[in-house]
């Protein structure tokens, strides 16, 4: 029963705070290469097909995702 209160408090805290790369006790920190796989794939595919100059929006979307994950890029 005591766990219910702490779980609710944690859920509300995570909804208000942005994600960070600080690892939870006993877990490994997320690596930048593994963060945001969806935006990374779209960005990489665009760069290969069209060149970096044509993919500014996808590059920026990936950087925004990485920042949301707590990376300083």
From TrEMBL:
<feature type="compositionally biased region" description="Polar residues">
    <location>
        <begin position="1"/>
        <end position="19"/>
    </location>
</feature>
<keyword id="KW-0143">Chaperone</keyword>
<feature type="region of interest" description="Disordered">
    <location>
        <begin position="1"/>
        <end position="30"/>
    </location>
</feature>
<dbReference type="InterPro" id="IPR007745">
    <property type="entry name" value="Cyt_c_oxidase_Cu-chaperone"/>
</dbReference>
<keyword id="KW-0186">Copper</keyword>
<dbReference type="InterPro" id="IPR009069">
    <property type="entry name" value="Cys_alpha_HP_mot_SF"/>
</dbReference>
<keyword id="KW-0479">Metal-binding</keyword>
<keyword id="KW-0496">Mitochondrion</keyword>
<protein>
    <submittedName>
        <fullName>Cytochrome c oxidase copper chaperone</fullName>
    </submittedName>
</protein>
<dbReference type="GO" id="GO:0016531">
    <property type="term" value="F:copper chaperone activity"/>
</dbReference>
<dbReference type="Pfam" id="PF05051">
    <property type="entry name" value="COX17"/>
</dbReference>
<comment type="similarity">
    <text>Belongs to the COX17 family.</text>
</comment>
<dbReference type="GO" id="GO:0005507">
    <property type="term" value="F:copper ion binding"/>
</dbReference>
<keyword id="KW-1015">Disulfide bond</keyword>
<dbReference type="GO" id="GO:0005758">
    <property type="term" value="C:mitochondrial intermembrane space"/>
</dbReference>
<feature type="binding site">
    <location>
        <position position="33"/>
    </location>
    <ligand>
        <name>Cu cation</name>
    </ligand>
</feature>
<feature type="binding site">
    <location>
        <position position="34"/>
    </location>
    <ligand>
        <name>Cu cation</name>
    </ligand>
</feature>
């Amino acid at each position: 029963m005591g766990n219910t209160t702490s779980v609710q408090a944690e859920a509300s805290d995570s909804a208000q705070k942005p994600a960070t790369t600080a690892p939870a006790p006993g877990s490994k920190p997320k690596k930048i290469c593994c963060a945001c796989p969806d935006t990374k794939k779209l960005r990489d595919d665009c760069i290969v097909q069209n060149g970096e100059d044509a993919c500014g929006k996808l590059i920026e979307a990936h950087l925004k995702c990485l920042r949301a994950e707590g990376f300083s890029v």
